[in-house]
Amino acid sequence: MKQERRDFIKKSLLAAGALTILPSSVIFANSAKGNTLNKVLPSDKINMAFIGIGNRGGQILNEFMRTGLVNNVAMCDVDMGAPHTVANLNKYPDVPRFQDFRRMFDKMATKIDAVCVGTPDFSHFPITILAMSLGIHTYVEKPLSRTFQESELLMEAEKKYKVVTQMGNQGHSEANYFQFKAWLDAGIIKDVTQVTAHMNSPRRWHGWDTSMTSFPKGQPIPETLDWDTWLSAAQHHDFHPDFVNGQWRCWYDFGMGALGDWGAHIVDTVHEFLDLGLPYEVNPIKIEGANPLFFPQASTIDFKFPKRKKMPPINITWYEGLNNIPDLPEGFGASELDPDIPAASTGQIKPAKLNPGKEIYSKDLTFKGGSHGSTLSIISKEAAEDMKSKLPEVPVSPSNHFENFARACMNQEKTRSPFSISAPLSQVFVLGTLAQRLGTKIEFDRKKKQITNNTFANQLLIGTPPRREWEQFYKL
Predict the structure, then answer these.
(1) Contact 368, 332 (CB under 8 A)
(2) Over 50: is that where the pLDDT of 177 sits?
(3) In the CATH hierarchy, which top-level class contains the domain 176-395+421-475?
């Protein structure tokens, strides 16, 4: 497949007369190291396929097309007749369409430079690993995967296949990313020992019957839906409307709850720039409305990270649930919601007693911030005024998250949330959801990457085995 892909690119360039301008030693600069992946020329647009084209996947498709750097060459969705997919299909009537990503890659792999994976959490892995193995650059919505092992395998694949990767926590290309780094480098943020993070808006499963002991009874599968492909590697479940169109986020079998959904937008810069890596302990301080099938009605999870180089140990305490509000520092002020947060498939995020965000406690200063690209501010007003003249200039982002990925495929930029950075972040959330699910403390060996105090929890790092026909994806 790699050789066919390289031959196709060479033929295309010859047809365009490109090789009279740039020699093959430039276009295939890494071939001496065994890397024969497609290298998009800086003057070209990248040929991109989109898997998951409704709801959030459709939003991402439109964001990529707005960059002006992308050709839409293929669209794939398991339900090509649903209203949320038809709208985007109608925009691109001449683009090849597929209902199974495996068939799409079988037919079009040599014509695809990059792929966008905008499907439910549990189905990210098989699509992503297959694309990478074919030498295709890959953009994946957050969280990167549903299990710890899947993120581990994707980090290994990033090294093995040497493709461009990006997870879709778009705040990594917005103001908060550049501000946090600038303030850290200038010593404004230093000696952080505690972070409080919170998501207290209503969630889809809030109000569900917590005495539920079995999954909803199956209903007829819509005629336009390929249910077997939707399930992908997950164990079989009969179709039910509460599994699709965002409802999958409610269930441990399919989603990552509020932590996986919003954690990547709230603690992402803290995790990267404070070099947190993986915690050594995750403790469910509070669990309300627990159920073995879906996420709690409220929970407080404490993550403990050790000392790193000259930085002290740090705790991140996560709060979710309508009334599970953390104590706020004196002088906190108003809680604002970033107007640029993308709308959910059910509409804009609903008001909450406390908007999604974080408080960062350091030795000398306390900071507050929102979600996504929201910038930090210093608490209180008096402290902020005292620091005003000491704050460094913050660089302006050269590209949004989608343009950053496209330009990285053209070798013009480096992605800001590659799997080497975003996979460990996603693994933190996996450990948190295990603590939620089991209601027990997790003790974690950071070097061996094993849970040491609970055999069952350790088995869940891998999760349930994939269905037989999907086992091959875990061997690529």
Answers:
(1) yes
(2) yes
(3) alpha beta
